[in-house]
Amino acid sequence: MKAFVTGPTGFLGINLLQHLAKEGWDIIAFHRPTSDLSEVKKIARVGYAIGDVRDLDSLLRGLPVGVDAIFHTAGSVGFLLPEEEKSQYEINEHGTRNLVTAAFARSARRFIYTSTVLTYDFSCGGRITEQSPPNMSEVYPYIHSKYLAEREVEAALARGLDAVFLHPSAIFGAYDKATWSQAFEAVQRGRLPAAPPGGASFCHMRRVAEAHVSAFYKGRTGEHYLLGGVDASFLEVTQAIAKILRRRGPRVVLPGCSNGPHAARYVPRPASRSSLFVTGDDHVNWLFFTVVCR
């Protein structure tokens, strides 16, 4: 079996490559010229193609004819400063459109698209399922660009693309440099006196990687699958981090700030590239939390 993987040097990408190699796949890692390949080069059965998802020609050069699976994990993740937000649409929406075009041109068998739980509408509170309505809000470019990327793949389904959608929730695991690793650093440095309200569904990255390969074998064409795990409050999670690090963790929860002056203060210029939320207005509290962590 042969896989073409975008975003191979990312948090998910490295874990996915490791699992594919373990399962005996031959892998093409599609990466930018500036990518750090130090961890990828430790993995067997990996070949390389240089390019950028924003450059269709580079995708057509790098993608062989008839690969068994395209795993599209590349993306601009999280919440950027306003001046960086345009690039998020270029990478997430337009990059996905380019890869879909290349998939048709090179007759790829299956297309596994990595989205996020945030493309479901969490504004009403309650538990999210695969039947929950989509999140079409344009407030956060990360979420909106991922939603639009899904629409690109949905449109390709109607033209015959065999695609499966995966929606990971909050992820822990090795090679994390920009999401929950920040919480570990904040606890380690004693910079987290309180936890935000709310919580999330938490899963391990190795399981998420395994789910991507399972989606190739078992996923139904056009289906969306949530990848969750243990449900926990942010207080429980940060206290667990403190226990692992043998540090004093937060003992209290910040009061809700979704509709108050703190929301107006912190949401317009988020500093994190994290994408870990769950329901209701807790997403605003998480943005507040990431600013505190930094």
List the helices and strands and how they pair.
Elements lengths: L1 E5 L4 H12 L3 E6 L14 E5 L5 H7 L6 E4 L12 H21 L4 E5 L26 H17 L5 E6 L1 E3 L8 H8 L5 E2 L3 E6 H14 L5 E4 L2 E4 H12 L6 E2 L7 H6 L15 H12 L1
Parallel strand pairs: 1-2, 1-4, 2-3, 4-5, 5-6, 6-10, 7-9, 8-12
Antiparallel strand pairs: 9-11
Helix pairs in contact: 1-6, 3-4, 5-7
Domain count? 2
Globally, the shape reads globular
Number of helices: 9
CATH class of the largest domain: Alpha Beta
CATH evolutionary superfamily of the largest domain: NAD(P)-binding Rossmann-like Domain
**Which blocks of ≥5 consecutive residues have pLDDT under 50?**
258-294
| CATH architectural type of the largest domain | 3-Layer(aba) Sandwich
Strand ordering within the main sheet: 3-2-1-4-5-6-10
Oligomeric status of the shown chains?
single chain
Structural class: alpha/beta
The separation of the N and C termini measures: 42 Å
Estimated helix fraction: 25-40%
Our estimate of the beta-strand percent is: 15-25%
Largest sheet: 7 strands, parallel
- Could you tell me the CATH topology label of the largest domain: Rossmann fold
Number of DSSP strands? 12
SSE string, helix = H, strand = E? EHEEHEHEHEEHEEHEEHEHH
